Amino acid sequence: MTLQRINMPQLGGESVTEGGTVSNWLVKVGDYVEKYDAIAEVMTDKVNAEVPSSYSGVIKDLIADEGETIEVGQLMCYIEVEGQLREPVTTVSETPAKEEKLDSQNMKTRYSPVVMRLAQEHNIELQTVNGTGKSGRITRKDIEKYINNQHHTNEAEIQENPTEDMEQHGSDAVEEIEEFTPPIIRRKPVKAKPGDREIPVTGLRRTIAQNMVRSKTEIPHAWMMIEVDVTNLVAYRNDEKNNFRENEGYNLSYFAFFLNAVAKALKKFPELNSCWAGDKIIQRNEINLSIAVAHEHELYVPVIKNVDEKSIKGIAKEIAQLSKKARTGTLAKEDMEDGTFTVNNTGSFGSVESMGVINYPQSAILQVESIVKRPVIIDNMFAARDMVNLCLSLDHRVLDGVICGAFMSHVKAILENISSDTTPIY
Amino acid sequence: MPEEDYTVPIGKADIKRVGEDVTVITYGLCVHFAKQAAEKLEQEGISTEIVDLRTVYPPLDQETIKAAASKTGKVLLVTEDNKEGSIIGEVAAIISEHCMFDLDAPIKRLAGPDVPAMPYAPPLEKEFMMNADKIEQAIRELAEF
C-alpha cells in the first residue's frame, strides 16, 4: 500500500498554468477507483472537464474543496494504491505534509471561548476571519484586528460623503478624492420553504453567475436601442435560403447578415472593439465576435474569429458548426477564446427589446431582437415593413453616446441597404 | 530597592510588566525569571504581561488576576513548587471560574515535576528547578497557539 498524490492536470491546449476550479467531486473518501476513472469535474473559465484518476486504488483524502481554484500541478487528492512502493521517496515526504494539512483544517474551525464571544458580539462570520494561530486557528488578536478593520472601513465611508457635498456646491474643495470602495453588504440568508426544490449551484452555472456579477459590478453599463427596417434583407434571404440549404446543407440564417454588418461597422468604429485595462484602453486589431448559444440550462459564448474577412456563407457555416458543437457539448476551450465584441441573438426566443450584460472584459454587446412585421410610415403612407430592434449595452468608461450612436447608425445603414449587389453571399 | 522605608501591601498583586499577547502570573524568584524571558521575547515581537502575586495565602488578589487573565486570554502560571497541589492550581481555578469567555487558550501551568522532594544530584536538581529558558519556551508556545 502506498499513498500517491493526484494533481490538477493541464486542461485545454495552449494555456500553460491556468488552473481549474473543482466543481464537483465524483468520488468520496474510501471509494475504490480504477485507473482513468473520472474522479472530479473541473472547470476552467470556459470549459468543463473530468479529471481521470492516475492510479487504481482507494481515495484517501480530498484536499481540494469544491469551488476551490487550484493551479496546474497542485495537489487535488491522495489515493492509496495497492501493491509495490514504486516511488517510496515521494510517499515518505508527502505523508507529513498531509497530516499538517489535516491538522490545519481541524484548528481553523476550532474556536476558543473569547473568539466565540467576540464573534457573537460583533456579528462576525468566523469563516471570513483569517487565522494566524497554530494550524490556522483564529486567535483573539485575529478577531480584534478584523473588528478594527471593519471600524476603519465604516469611518472612511462616513468621511466620504461630506467631500462629495462640497464638490457639488462648487466650493474650493480639495481635488484629492479617495478611491471609492463599495461597502460590503452581506447577503441575507434565503431559506427554502417545504416543497421548494433546492438546486445546488455548480459548474457552469457558478461561472456564469460570477462573470455576470463581475461585469455588472465593475462595468458602468449604458444602453441604446435603434430600430432597423430589414424588409430588403428579409426578401433577399427568402429568395436565397432554399437554394442555399440545398447547396450547402445548412441554414442561411439572418444572424449571419447581422454579424457581417456588425463586423463592417466595427472596422469603421474600432473604438467599440476594445476593452478597459485600468490605466489604458486596448483597441483590438482582430474582429472576433462572441455569439451566445444557449443549450438546455447552459449558456455558451463561442467565438467566430476574423468575421470581417469572411463571406456571409463563411459566417453562416461557422454559426452552424458552433451551434452543433454547443448542442453536443463538444465546444473546446479554443472555440470560446479571444472574443472582442459580442452579438447576442435574443430574437431567437422572441424578445423584441432587452438590455444585455456586457461579456467581460469586452466593452459592448449588441442584442439582435426579433424581426417583426409592423406598419411604418414612408412618404406619408403606411407600409408593412419588417422591423428589428438592435439593443446595445456599452461600457461607459470606454465609450460614449456619440460614438455608439454613429456606430449604430452605420450598422442600420448597412442592414437597410442589403441586396444581392451590396452583400453577395459567396 | 527604594532608599526610604516602605511596606508591601498584603493581598495586593503587582503588575511587573504590561503586555498584550500572554499573561504570566507567578511569585517569588520566578517573577525575575519571567522578566528575563519577557525581555528576550520582546525582541521577537511577543509582548508579555507579568503579574507578581506577592500574597499567596490568603487572600489572593482576585481582581488583578481576573483582569490580567482576561486581557490576553492566554495565561501561563509559574511556580517552583510541585505541579499538583501548588498555589497556582488555585489561581487557575479562579480564572476558569470567572474568565471562561475571555480565554483564548488553555490555562497553562509551569511547575516542578510531581516528585517527593528536590533531588540531591545536580543534573536532577537542575531539571527540577524553574529557569528563564523554560518560561520563555512556555510563553512562546502560548503566543503561537
TrEMBL record, chain B:
A molecular-function term among this protein's GO annotations: oxidoreductase activity
Record bears the keyword Metal-binding: no
Cited InterPro entries: Transketo_C/PFOR_II, Transketolase_C
Domain of life where this protein originates: Bacteria
Record bears the keyword Thylakoid: no
Keywords of the record: Oxidoreductase, Thiamine pyrophosphate
Pfam families according to UniProt: Transketolase_C (PF02780)
Transketolase C-terminal domain: residues covered: 11-135
Necessary cofactors: thiamine diphosphate
PANTHER family: PYRUVATE DEHYDROGENASE E1 COMPONENT BETA SUBUNIT, PYRUVATE DEHYDROGENASE E1 COMPONENT SUBUNIT BETA
Name of protein: Branched-chain alpha-keto acid dehydrogenase
